[in-house]
Amino acid sequence: MADTAVTLGRTDDYILVSKPKKGIAYVEARLKDDRIPSHTDRGCQLLLSRLEQEWSPPKLKDDTVISLEADLLKEPVFHKGVPSELFHSLRVVEFQGLDPTTRVVSMRDVAIKVNLYRCTPESPSVSDDEIVAMLPSSTLDGLWELLVLDHAVQSRILRWVNNYAMSRTTQLPLASSAASSIVPLLGPTGSGKPTLAKAVA
Question: Could you tell me the pTM of the whole model?
Fold first, then answer.
């Protein structure tokens, strides 16, 4: 990796570490709930400089690997210069563009896309039989990990939800307005998904 050029940049709420790659490793950088610079430029610049120091060729060896679902704050090669007082976790959540069964990958083979976020400690508000929670919420923390789904299924669901949310922010033509009423029903066989779908329809 000594001859690999590493470029760091910021786009939206992501920090992207790009290099010659076979795929992308998505990392969720969860800031501690009590930290002020959550999504601010100052917080992003601090993280960019730390990542540049820690993930650049002079520090990383050619055999440095990352594992799916690993918390990089607990990995000896990463945690030394990354401020643990700022982060709750730096978790590898997905590999994209690689074989779906891949669980471990060399750092030199992937671009790294880091999503910065902070959970809101606010309790959900209740009004007119509706419960509204600001997301991401600390009250829902850990529920996604409890789902007994194959990782590839979780990845497809996340992409579908992301695309759905993006389509809701743009003007849809009348012909595609039916897409706004799509509700995914997930669960094991025999859990009543068809019955619920008929009841909702």
Answer: 0.60
Average pLDDT, the chain: 69
Measured CA to CA, the distance from residue 134 to residue 151 in angstroms comes to: 26
Residue-range domain boundaries for the chain: 1-118, 120-161
Which pLDDT does position 38 carry in this prediction?
45
The pLDDT tens digits for 97-125 are: 888 888 898 877 888 888 777 777 667 67
DSSP assignments along 105-123, one per residue:
EEGGGEEEEEEEE--B-PP
**CA gap 142, 139 in Å, rounded:** 9
| Cα distance between residue 120 and residue 136, in whole Å | 6
Give the span between the Cα atoms of 66 and 64, in whole angstroms: 7
User: Positive or negative CA dihedral for 18, 8, 103, 160?
Assistant: negative
